[in-house]
Amino acid sequence: MEEYGSFANSQRSSPSGWHYDTYDVSKNFHQISPLVQTHLKQVYLTLCCALISSALGVYLHLLWNTGGFLTTLGFIVSIFWLLSTPLYEQRKRVAILMSAALFEGASIGPLMDLAIQVDPSIILSAFVGTAVAFGCFSAAAMLSRRREYLYLGGLLSSGLSILLWLHFAASTFGGSTAMFEVDLYFGLLLFVGYMVVDTQEIIERAHLGDLDYVTHALTLFTDFAAVFVRLVIIMLSNAMEKDKKEKKKKRS
Prior knowledge:
mainly alpha, 86% helix
């Protein structure tokens, strides 16, 4: 009742409250100039192509078992190659980005293969969840006031350094299950935050004249892939634990 009363009071104090909020949101969106909106369309179109290329990489691994250390190395080399290629060679840079996405898809191919063996619906569920989260947080970054979330970049960078130290500690002293879960869920939280910060940073860079849609698409692609992989691992571990419990019940 109290919640209803406060809502009613807010509507009385502002009869057109809903319309006012809608106007504020549209006004924030109109802060993005037509040039920047066109740039964002190029970024997201390139991102979609990169995701398709990555899916092709997964498919190639399922056919010929191509994923492994060499594809991971190919992904890293492709990123450095892309960043060192001049901006005026955009077609070449797009091709390099597609190659990097292909290598990334092949690299996560073994994980996808395992997920298919346990429960094929895991991949679709993780992809839909990642796409929904990506769409919602990207929209939040676009509709918010300019530079509103950029201050989170420092916190996320600190969190990423903590995550790297956790990886180092796990590889040096041996990782426990608790450390693995902290790494998994904390990393998921970090990269979801990067979806918001990177989207708003791309918008600000575009306002300042940086219209490098290939590099911006690469940034969003790495965020998308990081969240997707962690969701697959979480769903896969939950499904495997569920299978173990069912087997124990059958034995007992």
